[in-house]
Amino acid sequence: MPGPDKPLLSVLRGQKAEKTPIWLMRQAGRYLPEYRALRAEKGGFLNLVYDPDAAAEITLQPIRRFGFDGAILFSDILIVPYALGQDLRFEAGEGPRLSPPLVDAALAGLEAVPGRLEPIYRTVDKVKAALPPKTTFLGFAGSPWTVATYMVAGQGSKEQAEARRYAYRDPVAFQEILDAIASMTVDYLSGQVRAGVEAVQLFDSWAGSLSPQQFEQWVVAPNARIVSDFKSRHPDVPVIGFPKGAGGKLAAYARGVGVDAIGLDETVDPAWAAAELPDGLPVQGNLDPLALIAGGAALESAVARIISAFGERPHIFNLGHGILQDTPIAHVEQLLKLVRQ
Predict the structure, then answer these.
(1) Which residue numbers are catalytic?
(2) Of the chain's two ends, which shows fewer C-beta atoms within 10 Å, N or C?
(3) What is this structure's pTM?
(4) What is the pLDDT of residues 251-304, one digit of tens each?
C-alpha cells in the first residue's frame, strides 16, 4: 500500500494530501527542448515510441526537469489498433493514419499482432528502474469509443462523423469493434502493470461528441467492462477515467464506469464538480492549457479557484487536456510553485 512517500498514488486511493500532487497530460513532449532534440535525432514519432531507450528517456525528461509527482508513459493511444492488425503511420503535419479504415473493411479481416505491444512493456521496465521513489508511474490507454473513431475513419476528425454514422448504421458491427478494443486494452494495461506501472488512465478524448444514449452505449458500457475486467486481474491498481467533454454526464460516468478517480477537462466548473460528483471520489484537473500559456495573474487566479473548489476531497492537479507545445517553461515552473505553496 502506498505511504506518504507516493502522494499521487495515495490520493488515487482516496486519501487527501497535505500538498496537492501534480502531473500534466502530455508533460513529456514538444514544449521541452530536450524532447525536440531527441526527436530530431531519432526521427518520427513512432520511431520514438518503439525505441524503448528513447521512450523511457522522454518519459523521464519532465520528472528530471520539474519533479512532477507522476510520470506518464510516453506512448500513443493508437498502439491498440496497431496491435489489432491495422497499419499505423504518422504523416508529418497531418497526424496519424490507420489502414485499412474500418468504414471500408471488416474487423474480421484484421489479424491481431499482440507482439506489437512488447516494446512498450520494455519501456515501462526501463522507466520503473530509473524513477525517483516518490514518483507514481502512470500507464494509459485510449477508451474504446475514441480509439474506434480512428479505426473507422482511418484518421482523426473534428466531429467523429464517420464513426457516429457507422454506429447508427450498423450498431452490431460497431459493438464488435468496441469489444475487440476493450479486450486488447485490458491485456495491454495488464501488461503495463506487470512491467511496473502503478496506476492507469483511460483517455476518452472524444466522449463529448455523443448524444446521451450513445454516451451510455459507447462510452459508459465499454469503459465499465474494461474497469471490471482489469480490476479482476489487478484489484489494487487505481484507474483514472478521463471522458473529455462529458460535462453534465460526468456523474453518470463516474457511477456507471466504476473508476477510482475522474479527470475533468477545462470546461467543467470545479465548484459544480465538487458538489455533483460522488462523495469522496478523487478528482483530477482541470486548468485550461491556455491559462498556463498566459501565466502571470491569470494563471494564479485559475489555480487558486481550482484548489479552493476541491479542498474537501482528494485532488490531483492537472490540466484540462494536454499541455500545448508553445507553453513557456517558466510558466510550468510558476504553476508548480503555485500548487505547492
Answers:
(1) 26, 30, 39, 76, 150
(2) N
(3) 0.96
(4) 999 999 999 999 999 999 999 999 999 999 999 999 999 999 999 999 999 999
